[in-house]
Design brief:
Elements: H1 2-8, E1 33-34, E2 40-41, H2 44-47, H3 76-84, E3 97-101, H4 105-108, H5 112-119, E4 124-129, E5 141-144, E6 153-154, E7 169-175, H6 188-199, H7 202-212, H8 229-241, H9 247-253, E8 255-259, H10 262-265, H11 280-295, E9 326-331, H12 345-353, E10 359-363, H13 364-369, E11 377-381, E12 386-394, E13 401-405, E14 447-453
Helix pairs in contact: 3-5
Length: 455
């Protein structure tokens, strides 16, 4: 809806207006496509495999239920639901192996209690972790992952998504290790390459990389050969920038930049495809999803597949007056990133000195009405879970709302800096079909809670 307002005002991909990912790459390396009607389609560089106009009308056979959620590119909440209730959609298989690559499923998803039930149904779990985190405590095999200060990584910033037009440049950088990896730590990608080699399909991986990385002769990877990651980086940089800018050049110079033309920074007036303000594809998707649901013998909510978006109340608004008389919201702290940075002692020190980071924000009037004092330990409870933390009475939050910051509240023994610091908001989130957006599979974070003194 915010984007449509900018489109109507002519303030889309122009200076001072709203803009999303970089639609046009350097020297036309990528750019948007168009349907037969002239409507924009995303470049492959930024599309994440999105298919906004073509839909499969058959019963799903994957955990994400692609055919029931054809518009979205992320269906991970459905994985958890199908693991927890394997007979719900009668899928022809159940996962026997889960490999977790640098992600904390227990902290960053919904209720960890519900996720634990799902993970228990997977016979074997392997995880790459920099610490013995909450997922590592669940895993059968823990593979120590090299920390970013120990890794040699090419192009950690993506030109398609992470580069603002404000710099006036596209740039490609190199992250070099400060220290050698400790113990047996390795980069997860190196381990997966070795697994592919042992299983006999590394050559196929090289073929795919030739396409995905845009490698050109004479720098294409030979499927019959074996390469170190540094050699692959050398082929990649030379394919992009010529033989004079291989990986050794990047080691010495750190990064390469090119000026961005105005057509690349603000492509709105220059591209031919049209941005829709009336989403007919949503109406086609609605019919497709309805047919798939009928094939499965299920009733399915397709009401949100609309040509023009509008607001609908979430289930919490329909709960009426109950013991759960407040709403809880989650907000970001500018110096932390999800749960990834919670083990950083410097950032932890900063968070401990911040008046809001590790606290539960309560309106001063609400706190007084409930007999809660500033600095007091309290419980926050939803239908899905219960968390404890220190109350911070403030006028900076609505009287009907309590606020919890970030992804804190770690409990893993292998995270001594983060353990017990702050409050874990996601413990309050229920995961169910009723609590998932039927278009995007986004988890509904509009939750009613009740608070009480912990003493």
């Amino acid at each position: 809806a915010v984007q449509i307002l900018n489109m109507v005002m002519g303030a889309y991909y122009v200076p001072g207006g709203h803009r999303g990912p970089n639609l046009v790459g350097p020297a036309g390396r990528w750019g948007p496509g168009a349907t037969k009607e002239g409507l924009i389609t995303p470049p492959s560089a930024i599309g994440h495999g999105a298919r906004y106009y073509q839909f499969e009308e058959r019963s799903p056979d994957d955990l994400g239920l692609h055919q029931l959620f054809p518009i979205t590119t992320n269906r991970s909440p459905m994985y958890q639901i199908n693991l927890t209730h394997p007979k719900e959609f009668s899928l022809p298989y159940q996962p026997q192996l889960l490999i977790v690559c640098r992600r904390n499923l227990m902290m960053n998803n919904g209720s960890p209690e519900l996720l634990a039930q799902a993970l228990k149904k997977i016979p074997f779990i392997a995880t790459f972790s920099t610490h013995l985190d909450e997922v590592a405590e669940f895993a059968d095999l823990v593979l120590p992952e090299a920390h970013y200060l120990e890794r040699f990584d090419l192009f950690p910033n993506r030109p398609s998504h992470t580069m603002s037009p404000a710099t006036g440049h596209f740039y490609w950088g190199l992250r070099q290790p400060v220290i050698e990896p400790l113990g047996q730590a390795r980069r997860w990608i190196d381990v997966l390459f070795e697994v592919a080699d042992r299983m006999g399909f590394l050559g196929d991986v090289y073929k795919l990389m030739n396409v995905n990385l845009g490698l050109r002769e004479p720098y294409k990877l030979d499927p019959s050969q074996r390469y170190t990651m540094e050699q692959i980086y050398d082929c990649w940089t030379k394919s992009l920038f010529g033989p004079e800018r291989g990986i050794e050049w990047f080691k010495k110079n750190g990064y390469h930049k090119v000026p961005r033309a105005v057509e690349e920074k603000y492509p709105g007036p220059f591209i031919k495809p049209r941005f829709p303000v009336y989403f007919e594809n949503m109406l086609r998707a609605k019919k497709s999803v309805g047919k798939v649901a009928a094939q499965m013998g299920r009733e399915w909510d397709t009401s949100d597949y609309q040509a023009v978006p509008d607001w609908k109340p979430c289930p919490a608004y329909d709960a009426g007056k109950s013991a759960y008389d407040l709403y809880v919201v989650n907000f970001k702290i500018p110096f932390h990133s999800l749960s990834v940075t919670t083990q950083n002692p410097w950032l932890n020190d900063l968070a401990e000195r911040n008046p809001y980071a590790y606290k539960i924000l309560i309106n001063a009037e609400t706190g007084a009405r409930k007999g809660i004092k500033d600095g007091e330990e309290i419980w926050v409870e939803s239908v899905a879970g219960k968390v404890k933390g220190e109350a911070k009475l403030t006028e900076c939050i609505h009287p009907e709302v309590v606020g919890i910051a970030g992804v804190f509240g770690s409990w893993a023994e292998g995270k001594p800096v983060a353990k017990g610091k702050g409050v874990h908001f996601n413990s309050l989130l229920p995961i169910s079909l009723e609590r998932i957006d039927p278009v995007s599979t986004g988890v509904d974070s509009c939750i009613r809670v009740k608070i009480s003194r912990a003493a």
